[in-house]
Amino acid sequence: MDRDLIDNANSLFLENHSEECFFERAIFLSWYCSKGDCRFCWMSTQKNLIRDPKKAKRRPETILAEVLISKLLDWKIEFLSGGYESYTQDELISLIKNINLIYPEKCWLNMGTLNKEELIAYRPYIKGVTGAVETINPVLHTHLCPSKPLSDIEMMFDICKEMDIDRSITIIIGLGETFDDFFLLKKFIEKYEIQRITFYALNPHKNTIFTKGPDSEYYAEWIAKTRISFPKLEIVAGSWTERLSEINLLLRAGANSITKFKSIKLFGSSYAKTVADQVSLAKREFKSNLTRLPEKDITKYLYPFPDELKIKIIEKYNMYYNNRLKKNGK
Ligand code: SF4
Q1: Which residues line the pocket of ligand 1, CB cutoff 6 A?
Q2: What whole-number distance in Å separates Cα of residue 14 and Cα of residue 150?
Q3: What is the pLDDT of residues 28-83, one digit of tens each?
Q4: CA 39 / ligand 1 centre spacing (Å)
Q5: How many angstroms separate the CA atoms of 289 and 74, rounded?
Q6: Quick check: 163 and 126 in contact, CB under 8 A?
Q7: pLDDT in tens, 147-162
Q8: Which residue's C-alpha comes closest to atom 2 of ligand 1?
Q9: Exposed, middle or buried: residue 307 (CB in 10 Å: 0-12, 13-18, 19+)?
């Protein structure tokens, strides 16, 4: 591993950013995706992928209970995420308005590429839009994401630039790219004035063409190169349960915050302690709570909701609280 690269990235990070570090949770809205064929994606392995977007939506009370848990545990919301065409415009706006009643900070929207009319409609309610680029190498991209060309994301970002809507991207490391492709990522970030990037290490799903994720060192070097080229960019780095010991390296490579691992499932466990230890090792201040139980009584947060929905959110919250968080949390 190139230690100078990591040290250089860490110094640039400290000159330009706060030492505070948060866990960021992506709020997943639906099991539907009209594409369904990206070769690394879990959705592509599901023969019985739900073909009706109405049936694939998570219930509003489940989503809202999860948003409330995120708020109470000082987790940030990474973005609201769902497959292509999983919600109608009206449904999504109504859901985002409800989310904002609990979590007033505007969220990034990662729901596939959006046209101008959709961007106009969502703009008042969102922080910006995320383009799931996945890989910047054009040959790999065509092969791995046959139904979602990069040009669609580029078109969306051109419109976003015209409309002054913030732009972020996601990149998966380990799909076959090499460091020779870094200049393409750099050009893309510059051209579309990207404000935030989320990196993930490939998590190979059974029945896909992939069997192995990238080494932590290689993954961290992508983050470090990005930090060095863009000292002010916001960088989020994903890690999985089996890879948590890489977190201190990812932070020293210049990531602002961490994401992706199953925070509710791991809450209060030895894994959660590992995360906190890793953040300390990187000499960052961990502001999110992965161990101490949140409030049990949440009624005061739900006063804006009608009674019927309020009761359902409380039921879901109690289910998460009793079955998951309480298992190991203090
Ligand atoms: S568009 Fe996204 S959710 Fe749909 S198959 Fe591709 S990676 Fe999976």
Answers
A1: 33, 35-38, 41, 43-44, 83-84, 132, 145, 148
A2: 33
A3: 998 888 888 999 998 888 766 666 777 778 999 999 999 999 999 999 999 999 88
A4: 9
A5: 6
A6: no
A7: 999 999 999 999 999 9
A8: 83
A9: exposed
CATH number at residue 15: 3.20.20.70
Q: How far apart are CA 24 and CA 20, in angstroms?
A: 13
Tokens standing for 106? Answer: 């505007």
Cα–Cα distance measured from residue 61 to residue 310, given in angstroms and rounded to the nearest whole number? 8
Q: Give 297's contacts (C-beta < 8 A, 6+ positions apart).
A: none
Q: How far is the CA of 91 from the centre of ligand 1 (A)?
A: 20
Task: Identify the domain containing residue 266 by its residue range.
Answer: 3-328
- Residues 265-320 pLDDT 10s: 999 999 999 999 999 999 999 999 999 999 999 999 999 999 999 999 999 999 99
Paired tokens of 223: 């983050």
SS3 124: helix
Q: Is residue 1 very low, low, confident or very high in pLDDT (cuts 50, 70, 90)?
A: confident
What is the position in ligand 1's atom list of the atom closest to the CA of 37? 5
Lookup: tokens for 287: 């502001």
**52 close to 86: Cβ distance less than 8 angstroms:** no
When divided into structural domains, the chain yields a total of 1
* Residue of 44, 79, 202 to test ligand 1 pocket, by largest number of atoms within 8 Å of CB: 44
Q: How distant is the alpha carbon of residue 53 from its chain centre?
A: 21
Q: pTM of the entire structure?
A: 0.96
pLDDT in tens, 109-138: 999 999 999 999 999 999 999 999 999 999
Tokens of 14: 């400290």
Phi, psi torsion values for 127, nearest 5 degrees: -80, -40
Atom 5 of ligand 1, residue of closest alpha carbon: 36
Helices (H), the chain: 3-16, 53-56, 60-72, 89-102, 116-122, 138-144, 150-163, 182-191, 216-229, 247-252, 263-266, 270-281, 307-320, 326-328
